[in-house]
Amino acid sequence: MLPYAMDTDLSSQDRKDLDKFIKFFALKTVQVIVQARLGEKICTRSSSSPTGSDWFNLAIKDIPEVTHEAKKALAGQLPAVGRSMCVEISLKTSEGDSMELEIWCLEMNEKCDKEIKVSYTVYNRLSLLLKSLLAITRVTPAYRLSRKQGHEYVILYRIYFGEVQLSGLGEGFQTVRVGTVGTPVGTITLSCAYRINLAFMSTRQFERTPPIMGIIIDHFVDRPYPSSSPMHPCNYRAGEDNGAVYPSVEDSQEVCTTSFSTSPPSQPAALGVGSADMGYPVLFAGGLNAAHPHQLLGPGKEGGVPPVPSQPAHGTQADQERMCTPLDGVHYSAATPSSSEDTETVSNSSEGKSGSPHDLLETIFIRKVGAFVNKPINQVTMANLDIPFAMFAPKNVELEDNDPMVNPPDSPETESPLQGSLHSEGSSGSSTGNTHDDFVMIDFKPAFSKDDILPMDLGTFYREFQNPPQLSSLSIDIGAQSMAEDLDSLPEKLAVHEKNVKEFDAFVETLQ
Amino acid sequence: MVGPGWTRRRAPPGAAPTMNCRAEVLEVSVEGRQVEEAMLAVLHTVLLHRSTGKFHYKKEGTYSIGTVGTQDVDCDFIDFAYVRVSSEELDRALRKAVGEFKDALRSSGSDGMGQISLEFYQKKKSRWPFSDECIPWELWTIKVNVVNLANEQERQICREKVGEKLCEKIINIVEVMNRHEYLPKMPTQSEVDNVFDTSLKDVQPYLYKISYQITDSLGTSVTTTMRRLIKDTLAL
């Protein structure tokens, strides 16, 4: 525990609560900042029933890698005087030049508010501060830059703990204060210093820095305050992740306050803190992750999507946007308050359930694989994934012998050029059953089709009637027949016309 | 502008709260088609800070709070994005109010000046035959000046400028929120409807009402109060 001045007035329960609040506030702060720089619009759902795992009553998703980095930087400590938690946002161009854009600082000063109630007022004010952070992260210049990232530059983040370093922001940087919350042990301040001199983008006066991805500048064997830590991208691209296994869940003993009391403080009746161990927040699958094989695995799994357990470990198919739900409804697991709460290590080895959540796929921040990419996903049970229209996604690689798209029903000899091209690829490869490199066949399962009226669905209908037989009137035989008839009747017609030659001549004369 | 101080937390029982309403004024100049988005951005940002999750009261004196979700909104006519509470009902209510304000502005003539106000209040039950009192504790006023632009280049500049101005407004709003000044005391179950709007199904803002005024060319103001449809207004 950190030594705080005059903390004898704070009860030990209050003190524990306060430390926990500050810790999770720091983690949520990092999540909000990094998510605001991912370049995508964030959307989480309100939920009227309390789940007990949404800290500060706000739906803020937890990206596991970000939590991991934050915990690594904090290394079990809390922000204190002279030891601030900082999130540095920088920009890196495709040429390798980089520039710091913002530093977000979570600081603590010595000004204490003894009168304030920890479990109630401090908690609510921290919630308000997080809302302010959500608002402010959208108004600094880096937000608009991050929304446009991707081609020419990317936005990176770095978390460090210790002294705030503002020198990289250039001259004339501005600061905006997000807010402060007084606590009995000090005042928490959240602020942002941001660069306003972005002129280098046009004059290209970059500061050449060495590549910063994946390199840890670690001059000290034992570094209590790391001066530098690896940068991480604010978006996700394959291969940049170092493949470390990130626990995707919080410690099982860390529950957030769920109950409040309107009665006077002499009856500390109903605080949920520490009394019941609810399941830890769990992230539910939001998208197919075949493009990012490194992010989820334990050892021994091959590339591609790891198998999803047939029984989802935590509850049923949840809404893609539902943030953190523990087990179904409000279901409390057996209360086993653990003493490991205070001895939590960075590696989080105490999490017994780290296996199965790894198999759950990542959240909406992962770019989804396109609908027509044929990947070996035999092992995935699609029904457990929360992608839209999961039922219609390719279930497995069907043998092409059975696929009517590849071996169409017999069609007449005259084929349109289009039909020819559709089938030429397929029929050549059907014997081997291998997929073609240049033409991908999928089982055509259109969305919204159901077997209600017709026994066949739209897809089957389409396939079967894609090669209709030719119209009989257009076939050559019948054409030939009518032509023969015409030829036969010609002499008769000519004879009739010759008889009326005089009439025709008179008619022609009237026209002249 | 901040009103003078007030009694903190609670007044002696039976006495009317002797507080003054905290008032903040923001001013923006926008083009006609930017009015809606600018107003929504400000109102949503204020309501983000003034909404909680739904309260669920349990045994006497205890309650738990639901979760508030948020989402990003991009503006079409302004280079700006803001965060709002994920509640379609709340969004609809604000859009309705802002839509009426915009229509009133438009029909008032080419001067295009007006203001829209968001007031947070508490209800104090009175005995019959008096109706309930509504005591405001925070008032946000946004003064709007609609400008007409001549060409596309000016419009593009206006997009960026208004975007920057709105960034400043958001910072102002957050600064006020951060002062942690008066907030109504958390109510008991019987009192919750006097403090919060419990009619929405997913979030719970403090009781609020939106009104607007249009200033016509003579400078006189035509007040139109639009009352939100709260079920309690039917009382008496």
List descriptors.
heterodimer; A: 512 residues; alpha+beta; 6-stranded antiparallel beta sheet; B: 236 residues; 5-stranded mixed beta sheet; two-stranded antiparallel ribbon; 4 helices; 11 strands; disordered N terminus; ATG101 (chain B); protein kinase binding (chain B)
Task: Please outline the helices and strands.
The complex is a heterodimer of chains A (512) and B (236).
Chain A: H1 12-35, H2 64-74, E1 84-93, E2 98-109, H3 118-136, H4 141-147, E3 153-162, E4 174-183, E5 186-194, H5 200-203, E6 232-233, E7 259-261, H6 355-359, H7 417-429, H8 458-464, H9 476-499, H10 501-511
Antiparallel strand pairs in A: 1-2, 1-3, 2-5, 3-6, 4-5
Helix pairs in contact in A: 1-2, 1-3
Chain B: E1 22-31, H1 35-49, E2 51-53, E3 55-57, E4 62-65, E5 70-74, E6 81-85, H2 88-107, E7 113-124, E8 133-147, H3 152-177, H4 192-195, E9 203-205, E10 208-215, E11 221-224
Parallel strand pairs in B: 1-8
Antiparallel strand pairs in B: 2-9, 3-4, 5-6, 7-8, 7-10, 10-11
Helix pairs in contact in B: 1-2, 1-3
Class derived from helix and strand content of chain A: alpha+beta
Distance between the termini of chain A: 119 Å
Describe the largest sheet of chain A. Answer: 6 strands, antiparallel
**pLDDT < 50 stretches of chain A:** 202-227, 236-253, 264-386, 395-436
Show unreliable segments of chain B: 1-18, 225-236
Radius of gyration of chain B: 19 Å
Kindly report the spatial arrangement of strands forming the biggest sheet of chain A.
Answer: 4-5-2-1-3-6
β-sheet strand percentage of chain A: 5-15%
Number of helices of chain B: 4
Oligomer: heterodimer
Structural class of chain B: alpha+beta
- Helical residue percent band of chain A: 10-25%
String of helices and strands of chain B = EHEEEEEHEEHHEEE
According to DSSP, the number of beta strands of chain A is 7
User: N-to-C terminal Cα separation of chain B, in Å?
Assistant: 36 Å
Q: Number of folding domains of chain B?
A: 1
Look at the structure and give the mean pLDDT of chain A. Answer: 65
Q: β content of chain B, as a range?
A: 25-35%
Q: Tell how many strands the DSSP assignment of chain B holds.
A: 11
The largest inter-chain interface, given as chain pair and residues per side, is:
A-B, 48 and 46 residues
